[in-house]
Amino acid sequence: MRLYVDVHCHIGTTITYDPAVGQTTGRCLARMADTGVVAAVVGPTAVGSSQVRGVLDTKDQNGIIVRACRQFPDRFPIGLALIELRHGQVGVDALEETLVEGGLKGIMWHPSGMTFERQLYPFLEVASLGGGLCLLHESAARTAAYAQRFPNLIFIVHAGVGEEFELCKPLDNVWFEIVQRPIGSKSDWDLPQLINELGSERILFGSDLPYYDYRILQAQLESADIDETTRDRIAFHNAVTLIQSVRPDWEPPQEAAAAPQNYSYEELWAPKEAGSERLL
Asked: What is this structure's pTM?
């Protein structure tokens, strides 16, 4: 089995789905073990998480990631902190505490219809003090603008297609992930074309666990009309290079971890409904 390193993984629960969708650290490790994923960049659920107590809920969600990274530093070499723009300066202060005391190395955010760039700047500024990764679930155009304003941060953007994609290509601190589908549920990744446009050195694999059955994406990568060296770069080596730029002390495991318990197939891979690519 080919080894993979995942740059887009969530632990926690999204309560705005019915039924709620999520995974524990243990189930995440079991899914990784079942598919050859030896390590992952991990963060809380990026949208739809509980906010009953506001910033305290966000701190608790980030605490789950802190504990996962401390308990399994080889499997989760980089943890990202969830941010919520609605928390304002209180959220900025909480982020600084999480990054400094919790040891997380960047931020994760989902716009959810909010596109207030200036409200994001204070969070990005705090993250840039220590460097690290940003997974913002943003458009290529906005990501390019953030990357130019904050050169000390590395941004991961959905590779996608379109003219705005061109804005990110010249920026060394923007990397490109293949995750789910490029432009919706009916499309597949054209990896030869993507490699022709970008080269193969900054393309990364992302699972988007616990929302998506990423084995579909692995199958696309394994069957793509590309050479084995490029396949290995996208699955494994590029992510190792990226992670080591932030964590130079980290060495990637050379085999998948053992699952913490024996889950049934349905517990790991049951779809939300018949034929769906979404996990329950």
From this structure: 0.95
